[in-house]
Amino acid sequence: MYATPVSRQTPRPSLRPLVAAAVLALGAASSAQAQSLLEVFQAARDHDANYLSAVANAKATRSRGKQAWAGVLPQVAFSADKFVSQNNALSNAPSINSDSQTLSLKQPLYQMGSYYGVLQGEESIYVSLSQLQTAEQDLVIRITQAYFDVLSASDNVGVVQAQKQAVSEQLAAAKRNFEVGTSTVTDSREAQARFDLVVAQEIAAQNDLRVKRLALEQLVGINDVQPKALKVPVALPDLSTMDLDFWLSQAKANNAQLQQAQSAQKIASLESKKAMSNHLPTLDLVAQQRRSYASSTSSQSDNTSIGLQLNWPLFAGFAHRNRISETLHLQDKAQADLDNAQRSVLQATRSAFFGVQAGMSQVKALEAAEASSQVSLDANKLGYQVGVRINIDVLNAQTQLFQTKRDLSQARYNVLLGQLRLKQASGKLTSQDLQAVNDLLAP
């Protein structure tokens, strides 16, 4: 049985100032060096190896695509030779010198394979632009994820420290009540056990913050990154007001990965056409200007020729037929990959949309739960003071409140990141979308 208290300690202050003080303390420590999300993103564009690799690969792909024009543009070449001959049978015979210079031009007139190659090159350039867009969208998501991971870990440290302070006060009150005989030793032991648990949680939270900050610094190449926190209170934009059909239609039209699969299917189709054209004749315009000189006759001659050159492959050991068969199968593969990409993109869009919807509802529910948990804690503290609640009730109410605060903080970050993922799935995500998120950060 617990002893009925005659007099309780003076009422403890609300936990709201404790949490606010902890968060403000963390913010004050880093405000001098705090970086916004846009600043961090700009630094990452100049540092992140994955993004820089994608930029270089896109440039190389564009250059490779332009090489196909060589098959339809004129080819101009110059050659020169010089020979010296000596007749060994006649020792007194002078050496004979001859030299020549040749300028030749070849202009393809009809080469269907080269024409399809140009179309493939143009399509590959389009693919390179789409790949670069994908890399930039991926960088936006990775930077935002790492940025919010640091903010979430920092919030967790602040909440755990505030909880530690609250439990410490509850432990001190339990010890004082036990000394004056108004409570049992169980209250002190329960509070001590909760305090020890919070200390362990604080150590884990601080280590998690350290790890998350190192991950962000690796992305941006800046030491001691200090992200800006969200404004309090924060009004999250609600993208779920647009219906699902809108986002699905946007994804079909603009998703970068889907566009790449469509281009791959077009390139495979053109490759089949190019293979079929290998048995067709080719026609070239050929022109040549040749100048030669021979010392034996002291003569110089100029020869100019121009004409058409026809080449018609008749039999190549069944290579053409087998090549056509190969490209047709690769075309079927590209079509299957396109179908799979379309299904995956639409599924990802649906998941992102419903995730944003659920996230917004979760934020509203947790905001209500936070207010209810605060009221519950205040009621339990008051009940403990008048003897109708025990120490464990207060400790449980404290844990529930701080857990709710931690969940609410994480839910807000998840909503903002989920909205960016929804725009990524729909193909509309650009670095400009970070400005809307950046506006939600504290100055």
Protein model, in words:
α6 packs antiparallel against α8. A four-stranded antiparallel β-sheet has the order 2-3-5-6, with no helix packed on it. Strands 1-4 form a two-stranded parallel sheet. It has 443 residues and is α+β, with helices and mostly antiparallel strands. It has ten helices and six strands. The protein has one domain: Outer membrane efflux proteins (OEP) (Up-down Bundle).
Question: Notable features of this structure?
Answer:
443 residues; alpha+beta; four-stranded antiparallel beta sheet; 10 helices
CATH level 1 name: Mainly Alpha
Shape: elongated
Distance between the termini: 54 Å
In the CATH hierarchy, what is the superfamily?
A: Outer membrane efflux proteins (OEP)
Residue windows where pLDDT falls under 50 for at least 5 positions: 1-32
C-alpha Rg (nearest Å): 38 Å
Described by strand count, sense and barrel closure, the largest sheet is: 4 strands, antiparallel
Mean pLDDT: 86
- Helical proportion, percent range: 55-70%
According to DSSP, the number of beta strands is 6
In spatial order, strands of the major sheet run: 2-3-5-6
Overall structural domain count? 1
| Structural class by secondary-structure content | alpha+beta
Note the run of SSEs as H and E. HEHHEEHHEHHEEHHH
* Tally of individual helices: 10
CATH A-level architecture: Up-down Bundle
What is the compact description of this entry?
This protein is of the alpha+beta class and 443 residues long.
